[in-house]
Amino acid sequence: MSSDALYNLETTLQTSGVGQATPMGWVLFDADLVVRDCNHAATALLGLARDEIVGHALESLPWLAEDEHGVRFNDDADPIRVTCRTGRNVFGTTLGLSVRGKAFRWLSVNTYPAMVDDVQAGVLASYYDITELIQNRRNLEVALAVIRIVTVVESEAEYFEALCETLHVKGRYAMVFITEGVGTATRIRNASGLVDALELTMAELATSSKTGSSLTGTAARTGVVQIANSTDLPIIREWASEMEALGLRSAIALPFAAHERRLVLNIFSNHENEFDDWTVQGLNAVCYEIEFDLSHVRSVQRLNEALTGTLAALTEMSELRDPYTAGHQRHVAALSVAIALELGEPRSVAEMIGRAAEVHDIGKMSIPAEILTRPGRLNPLEFELMRKHPATGGDIMVHSGLPYPIPEVAYQHHERLDGSGYPDGLRGEEISRPARIVAVADVVEAMAHHRPYRTSLGIDEALAEIARGAGSIYDADVVAACQRVFESGFQFERARASR
Hints:
This protein is α+β, with helices and mostly antiparallel strands. The protein has 3 domains: 3-129, PAS domain (Beta-Lactamase); 134-298, Beta-Lactamase; 321-498, Hypothetical protein af1432 (Orthogonal Bundle), CATH 1.10.3210.10. It is 46% helix and 16% strand. The protein is built from 21 helices and 11 strands. The chain has helices at residues 9-16, 40-46, 79-86, 131-149, 156-170, 195-201, 203-207, 215-222, 234-237, 240-245, 277-320, 328-342, 347-358, 369-372, 380-386, 389-399, 406-412, 433-448, 459-468, 476-487, 492-498; strands spanning 25-30, 35-38, 64-66, 90-98, 105-116, 119-129, 175-180, 187-193, 226-228, 250-258, 261-269. Strands 2-1-6-5-4-3 form a 6-stranded antiparallel beta sheet. Strands 8-7-11-10-9 form a 5-stranded antiparallel beta sheet, sandwiched between helices. A hairpin with a 6-residue loop joins strand 4 and strand 5. Helix 16 (389-399) packs antiparallel against helix 17 (406-412).
């Protein structure tokens, strides 16, 4: 067969033995990667007329192709070039295709060597539309990521920050920001993506300060989703030059409610026609989730405020009965938080350990005040009574329904790794990690401050004591973290004041 046969797609398909299926798009390239033929399905899938494809070299075709991460294909990754260079089939490459004025689409591409008399004379490429599959998968990934946000944040501000970042990263949108208010009173709450560009050149778009009729302003005023799938639409035309300078081609503004306030979720894409029905449906579902999550966050905040108030009251009650150790629990809490953060615990976990430390000695409320405040050492009977305060404190916290690790810390903060502690003689990992942290902080604070039966031994002696017991009595990692905290300049009074 002559090389002229390569110019005929149908002949090449039959010769190559791959067949022709619809709605599969087929494009035939010669050895110089110039398009020699294509079928009707290819023109529809690629968003180009036949004369915009046939006769054009691959590098001059008017499309922008990228992978699922938004990265442009280079020569090493482009499946057509790989097959041309190696003669190997390449199957299942996912290609994101953007053509000016057309809907962005995702295609699955297979490439085959086009053979003439057993010699490779070009490349045959097939294209199949998988846009719906990719969009559904992406919508699901975004939805799941948004659902998880509420489990790791404690405030509305944290939630909005995580939401913008999640949509930017998981949704692969160029810019995401949240606004509150209408017209010139609009302010930007949080943003992710092209944040610098937003602050420098897009602020007026967000605040609607010129006409109040921009995408964001209209969504805020009417409560209706606004979509601009190109910069030619009237609602976005006023800002077209700013958008195009940043490579932004389409945008959507989705209003949502938060505690009787109307806010707007603004999303910008590098692609025209990004916000089709499937994508808008997924983003509407995200907004429903946001409204639910914000109610949950508000409830959690109120519960945290109530918990903080309850623990503060308990702390003051216990310290009123023991003026010599007033502030001890708050000092231990401040050091416990610092140690937990040094160990890499999330801020929310560290703060909860600190809350537990604030009431770790609550069981001392059951000890007669004359024993708590007596100068000098206790007799054996009094000491045995004192040893009961962890069990008493743990019982109080359990029956109060306070969350982990508050009861565990109250019960276990005098346990030791070698089993020499009390009340149960627990060993090693039987002692909860928060209790191991508070145990070290408790010893250091007690030795570093004055007590009725002795003067302060000082920080150096306290750190030497925990160092001697590291790995045998005290958790070695906790001891090392405590030492690093003090080396970094930790001071009890300053840390306590900042809590």
